[in-house]
Structures are given as structure tokens and as C-alpha cells.
Structure to design on (85 residues):
């Protein structure tokens, strides 16, 4: 399994090294996503964001709304008094 430095180099095309407790760009691969993002040598890296293989969080609204609809249907049916069916 690759460590973080190897994954950054292979997937993002950026090599980092630590100097004085800071992460500094040491290598930028030719044609890599890092080069396309206009990252240059000797820049300090403060945060790294990579896309994940997760579903969008908005997709969870679908089962939540379905459950809410089911609760509304059951409660309306329950609220009708005798002889109102």
C-alpha cells in the first residue's frame, strides 16, 4: 500500500518535502493535475483536497422525504374518526 507522499506524487503529480515544520513543493510532474493547477516549486502547502469516491450528500434527501411521506399518510389515516372512512 502506498503512503501519502507516493499517492500525492502518483495521483496529483506533486512531490513534497518538510522544511522547518512546513510542507514545501519539491517536485511537480509534467502534465500532472498539479501543473494544470499552476502549482510551482517552493510553495508552502497548507491544505490538500482531493475528490473522494462518495455519493453526494444530497442523495440522502430521497429516503428522508419518502419516510416523511409515509409518516404523513399513516398519520392522516389514523386521524380520521369512526364513520369518516
Amino acid at each position: 500500500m502506498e503512503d501519502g507522499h507516493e499517492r500525492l506524487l502518483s495521483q496529483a503529480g506533486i512531490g513534497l518535502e518538510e522544511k522547518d515544520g512546513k510542507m514545501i513543493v519539491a517536485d511537480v510532474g509534467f502534465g500532472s493535475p498539479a501543473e494544470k493547477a499552476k502549482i510551482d516549486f517552493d510553495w508552502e502547502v497548507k491544505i490538500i483536497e482531493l475528490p473522494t469516491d462518495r455519493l453526494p450528500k444530497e442523495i440522502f434527501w430521497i429516503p428522508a422525504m419518502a419516510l416523511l411521506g409515509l409518516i404523513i399518510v399513516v398519520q392522516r389515516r389514523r386521524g380520521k374518526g369512526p364513520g369518516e372512512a
Q: What stands out?
A: The chain has one domain: 4-79. Residues 49 and 67 are 34 Å apart (CA to CA). The mean pLDDT is 85. Helices lie at 4-12, 33-36, 61-79.
